[in-house]
Design goal:
Arc Repressor Mutant, subunit A, D-Maltodextrin-Binding Protein, domain 2, five-stranded mixed β-sheet, about 40% helix, elongated, WH_DNA-bd_sf, transcription regulation
């Protein structure tokens, strides 16, 4: 067991470039991680990692040993996953990351049903609108809107395509009026999601007609729920996926605008690391999430 732990500490340290971060991910103290690494080097009679106060790097022996030890740990993990894949109840901790809005609307409400089916499966949700690194953050599954991953070892599975809408509170409309054409948006106070590909430019279509509008923000923010609350307070016009504001529109708290014009659909994907055998916990979670979203969403919000 100590020899396996030594390998895990070495590989994780090499992957993260930090002994302290490796210790955090593996759930041990810095001192314990350092002892395991030193014991490994003593047992091999070789220096694997050189380090100073600012950084660490692998020796030539360390680089060669990393390839072999990484393969060994991957094979062990895949062997365990192969056994777990045949068990009735996948178990262990699954680390998921998504935006706050998606976690509130879909992940949190579905967990009781998922837990009832798989009581030994625990879910950790890291809410973040930035894209967390799978290895550094220890992520198993990420819900993301980008179409492609820069890392070719990441599998991208489409969850669905979402409609986006323009909407504002009745109080804002009473004060500023409704935009009648896309060009009118340039004169309005816009609430902008600043992580969009081109947040200050809108492209709208109506049949064969296309319009591009440059907009300015009364607020720009990296979280959809903050933008939603600002819109409810009457600050301006938001541009958000329909699933986030559907309830507010139905209740009359927000009014959809320029309903004859369409914004580009937003694609939502599930991403996870490519492995020879997909761990059972990832497989059951992703399958269940796709089914849950399609069962609970209206056709006008999502398109599979």
């Amino acid at each position: 067991m100590d020899r396996l732990t030594q390998l895990e500490v070495f590989v994780k340290t090499a992957e993260l470039g930090s002994l302290s971060r490796a210790a955090e991910v593996l759930g041990m103290s810095n001192a314990a991680a350092s002892r395991h690494l030193s014991a490994l080097e003593d047992r091999l009679s070789a220096r694997l990692i050189e380090r100073n106060t600012r950084r660490l790097w692998l020796t030539e022996a360390g680089q060669e040993f990393l390839q072999r030890s990484s393969s060994l740990l991957n094979e062990l993990s895949e062997a365990e996953d192969a056994i777990n894949a045949h068990t009735v109840s996948p178990q262990g901790l699954l680390r998921v990351t998504s935006s706050l809005s998606f976690a509130m609307t879909y992940i949190a409400p579905m967990l009781p049903e998922l837990r009832a089916l798989y009581p030994k499966l625990s879910v950790h949700v890291a809410v973040a609108n930035r894209y967390l690194d799978f290895i550094e953050a220890g992520i198993d599954v990420a819900i993301r809107t980008r179409l492609h991953e820069p890392d070719t070892n990441i599998i991208v599975r489409r969850l669905g395509r979402m409609r986006r809408v323009l909407a504002a509170a009745p109080a804002y409309i009473a004060l500023r009026g409704e935009p009648r054409e896309p060009a009118d948006l340039a004169q309005h106070d816009m609430l902008i999601y600043n992580l969009a590909a081109d947040p200050f430019s809108l492209h709208l279509t109506k049949g064969d007609i296309e319009r591009a509008v440059r907009i300015t923000g009364a607020l720009d923010c990296n979280d959809g729920q903050v933008i939603r609350q600002a819109a409810l307070a009457g600050l301006g016009i938001l541009i958000q996926p329909l699933y986030i504001v559907q309830g507010d529109i139905e209740a009359g708290r927000l009014v959809p605008l320029l309903i004859d014009w369409q914004l580009p659909m937003l694609t939502m994907n599930i991403a996870y690391q490519n492995k020879a055998r997909l761990p059972a916990k990832i497989r059951v979670f992703t399958d269940f999430l796709i089914d849950y979203v399609r069962r609970t969403s209206r056709s006008e919000i999502w398109s599979s």
